[in-house]
Design a protein that fits this description.
heterodimer, A: 175 residues, Immunoglobulin-like, five-stranded mixed sheet, B: mainly alpha, disordered C terminus
Chain lengths: 175, 494
């Protein structure tokens, strides 16, 4: 299952669960009316549990996400990797056209003019990594290409009226 | 039920909300043009596309801000001393600013977008004057916004005995002493008013700081602006504005739903603490806009994710949950006003789910600046804020009109508006999940195919809203002669 499908499924499951709760509450208005003072006791009890479940789930999700942050640790920054400079400018990326497969690459991304974004799409067209390209700053993005083929770098930060044509294809591996 | 025979209040609200909803309607057509262009059905040059996109984004924010300001103003006018003159001055500044933005984009072709990330406004192919007009226009809008915020903050602080009184501090921590003191307890709608005033002032100050810096840079090209500093300021004020729009319009729930359900919404400890949390978290969760700026201090990225997650707690545990408790077995009549108010809550929650997914750093790698971003904010702006505003207007109309909306009309409005909206939004979500970039005049596959589906959905939704407008006019002509009282709102001591 691709990342795209996983994200969509996650969204649809959560959204539909929420909508189902709203529909159930809406449907309850067709049942015999209860006085308002009858409602809170059970409602507050459910709310207390909902509060606990929600806070625990959110904190657990936060903790679980940390190992997958894309930011480089000091160790990985010092490890063996090929440094590849990427310079963004309206409306092109200046970077090598061929990169190795299966080896760590650290893209050193900057911009000559305005804010851009260096987004890497794999041969299937899925967005696999990205980082901002900013004037006056260099952002470091560590990537290992596991699959050979034609990749495309697209600008993902609006940079002017040529934004949509700002792309660069590059080959990973010997193909 | 008293509210309100105060004609000035009604006129100010009508001016703000009428302008806001009219601009929103126009921008729906502009948005449809953009999606149709991406679908290949409406030829637009990139220059035209991005100028209209800039206009669409800036004007929608201003339009919904006006709706929230007008709605909250009339709610708080019942409880505090608010000057209509100040509200009109604020409105005039915002209207002048919006006119400058419209001129800069439609006549000047300014296409630096409503986020105008420095230094892009100075690197465009549009005339230099249009950059200045846009920046001055946005600054005028901010001045008007800050005047309104200052008035609202001052009124709330005066009415409830200073900051601690407005925050209901003693109500939470020293309950017995508070009860014995006889001091007034702020009603639920006073908390969004306090938040809009306080957080709005902070956001406005950062917007003015950035605005002045950019105007100086526009005058003198030798001035240097740090792009990371500018980006932080931009997202701080823009994100806070967007959040405050939702919270201001959510205040209408606190009065509208009790009216629709015949129940009362009172201030509780959970509600007070929830609003304290929202006031704080709204100021820190903007960091999620800068996840892909790896030069941003790492601690901000962690704070951004945690803060974004936790901001869901007060919303769902307090406001949404309490609203569901109000509706539960209340026997509420499903008039159009009630339907819109209630469905707005769904849009708020569903948009929030999309936002929380995007606010998760590892997912943001795949979603940042894709169409997922407009997907989630269109969900809570169109499916939440617009529905709260329209719902409020309908509750007001229904409270005075002798006419009633028929079952067939309610079903037609529901199917067209919400059905079209669902199709329109899913076009965004699917394209975003597949990595289709946002803000592309010409999209790579599968963008154009999904844009076609989204355009059809948006067209159906707009037809639904046209029916809503026609029904609103019909109800308006059903007012009895000589009755100038709007019967909506909880009872307020005159």
């Amino acid at each position: 299952m691709s990342v795209a499908v996983k994200l969509l499924v996650m969204f649809l499951v959560l959204a539909n669960a929420a909508i189902a709760i709203f529909l159930a509450v809406a449907y309850s208005t067709h049942h015999p009316v209860r006085e308002q003072h009858d409602v809170p006791q059970r409602g507050y009890s459910i709310r207390g549990r909902w509060f606990l479940v929600l806070v625990l789930c959110l904190i657990a999700s936060f903790a679980a996400s940390i190992p997958f942050y894309p930011y480089m640790s000091a160790t990985s920054a010092l490890g063996p990797a090929r440094k590849v400079p990427v310079i963004a400018e309206q409306y092109a990326f200046i970077m090598p056209s061929r990169l190795p497969v299966g080896k760590a690459i650290i893209f050193e991304v900057t911009s000559r003019d305005v804010n851009h974004d260096f987004g890497i799409y794999n041969p299937q067209g899925h967005l696999i990594a990205q980082v901002q390209a900013m004037p006056d700053y260099t952002n470091y993005l560590r990537v290992i290409f596991h699959e050979p083929g034609q990749y495309t770098a697209r600008c993902l930060e609006y940079c002017g009226i040529g934004h949509a044509i700002m792309a660069k294809t590059f080959t990973v591996g010997d193909k | 039920m008293v509210l309100t025979s105060d004609n000035t209040s009604r006129r100010v609200m009508t001016l703000y909300m009428g302008t806001g909803l009219a601009l929103t309607a126009l921008m729906m057509f502009a948005g449809l043009m953009l999606r149709a262009s991406q679908a290949g059905w409406m030829p637009m040059s990139p220059g035209q596309f991005y100028a209209v996109l800039t206009l669409h984004g800036a004007v929608v924010i201003v339009a919904l801000m006006l709706c929230g300001m007008g709605g909250l103003w009339i709610l708080m006018r019942r409880l505090t001393s608010l000057s209509a003159s100040t509200a009109l001055i604020a409105y005039a500044c915002i209207a002048a600013g919006a006119a400058a933005v419209i001129a800069a984009t439609l006549f000047g072709g300014f296409a630096g977008l409503y986020t105008f990330l420095a230094p892009l406004p100075f690197y465009g192919s549009w005339p230099y004057w249009s950059t200045g007009a846009f920046l001055i226009g946005m600054s005028l809008i901010t001045i008007g916004w800050m005047a309104w915020c200052m008035q609202m903050l001052g009124a709330v602080l005066r009415a409830y005995g200073g900051a601690l009184g407005a925050l209901a501090w003693d109500f939470v921590w020293h309950r017995k002493a508070f009860d014995a003191s006889g001091r007034p307890l702020p009603p639920p709608e006073a908390f969004p008013a306090l938040m809009a005033g306080f957080d709005g002032m902070l956001a406005g100050m950062s917007a003015m700081l950035l605005g002045v810096a950019l105007i100086v840079r526009w005058i003198d090209a030798r001035v240097l602006i740090n792009p990371l500093w500018a980006k932080n300021l931009t997202y701080f004020f823009a994100h806070t504005y967007a959040n405050l729009i939702i919270y201001m319009l959510a205040a209408l729930i606190y009065v509208g739903l009790p009216y629709a359900t015949g129940r009362k919404y009172h201030t509780s400890t959970a509600l007070v603490v929830g609003w304290w949390c929202s006031m704080l978290l709204t100021l820190t969760n903007y960091f999620h806009h800068l996840y892909m700026d790896f030069v941003q201090p790492g601690s901000f990225q962690y704070l951004g994710e945690l803060s974004s997650y936790l901001s869901a707690v007060p919303v769902t545990v307090v406001t949404i949950f309490s609203a569901l408790m109000l509706v539960w077995r209340s026997g509420m009549k499903w008039t159009l006003g009630a339907i819109f108010m209630y469905t707005g809550l769904i849009g708020w929650v569903v948009g929030g789910i999309g936002a929380e997914i995007d606010a998760t750093v590892p997912f943001n790698t795949h979603l940042h600046n894709t169409l997922w971003v407009p997907a989630h904010f269109h969900t809570y702006l169109v499916g939440g804020c617009v529905l709260f505003a329209v719902g409020w207007v309908f509750l007001c109309l229904e409270s005075r009109s002798i006419r009633r909306t028929g079952t067939l009309m309610r079903w037609a409005v529901g199917l067209l508006t919400f059905g079209g909206m669902a199709v329109f939004l899913m076009g965004f979500y699917c394209a975003g999940a597949y990595g289709a970039p946002r803000r592309y005049a010409i999209e790579p596959p599968p963008g154009p195919e999904l844009a076609k589906i989204a355009s059809i959905g948006a067209t159906v939704m707009i037809i639904g809203f046209a029916l809503v407008f026609a029904e609103g006019v019909r109800l308006r002509f059903g007012y009895p002669d000589g009755d100038a009282t709007m019967r909506i709102g909880q009872e307020v001591e005159a």
